[in-house]
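Input record (one chain):
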Amino acid sequence: MEINRWENEGGALRKPKTSAQGGVEKARKATTLRRILVPIDFSPESLKTLRFAKLLATRFGARLHLMHVVSPPVTSPARPVMIPPAFSEEAIAARAWQRMKELLAELSLSARSNPCTVRSGAPVAEINEAARKIDADLIAIATRGYTGLKRAFLGSTTERVVREAPCPVLVVREKEHQSTRKGARKGRTALQFRKILVPVDFSECSRLGLDYALGFAHEFRARLVLFHSVVVHAYVLGDEYTARAVPDLIATQQDYAQDEMEKLLRSVSRKGREVESEIAFGSPVEQINDYVAKEDIDLIITSTHGRSGLRRVFIGSTAEHVVRYATCPVLVVPNLPASKKTSKARR
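The corresponding structure, as predicted from the sequence alone:
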């Protein structure tokens, strides 16, 4: 089935002509944001995300690209739709585009400088294809939409976008503890990143997240916190003999973590950034969330996976659960295969 797309051009709604996208990608730093894609479903959460993305775009001088995905009606030869839909896809697309244009006016944003797109199809595929088409530097997306389920994704759309996106993804949520903090009463905005937490497992993948975080910390003059949690896997506890060696195993892991952390601290300090570290023991997700609430962390920056090396698989699901349960915004940096990076650079 052909997927329809509608875009605005010169204030008019039209289907764009299909053409090959060429050009050589310019080398840019991790924190050079020029194009931010913001999927909108008009839920309160996505509207908050749009306002957050506007602040980010203003800070970096970036353009916002708003998009809405219209899901086509599901039909099958066995059970064809007998009653035609009340509105055609074109009418729904036109209404969605009009609502996005109203949002731009409400936020005092130019429709020419901040394009709107309406697509029809599967949301995850359309969002990621749009990100590739505009060469987005960042996707800003809400944690959930109309479902209203706390800490649940919008039909897993956000979760899958994070896993499959061709660029970093910022999962926006309000800090649940911010209203009770002294800084919030002084008018502190969500975009004032003062403290950024970076989970590390000392793999090359987690260093990718650290490199990106260094750029963000420089832009916002933020303090970095390198966080590692020592975990003893359950299988070493099941054997009578190996269980006796658990204290030694824990001590060995802690010594290793301390040595690796000191190397990272020296490396980051040489780059002129304020940095501190925290080594915890136990479930990484629980330890991270406890630390975020206790230390008033403004942002978590993490890479998509660590030691497993499996494509699109998170660090033992740690990053996935951090995105799902964190009480502050989370920025996820994809660890793209080398072949994809090379092909993108050659376009």
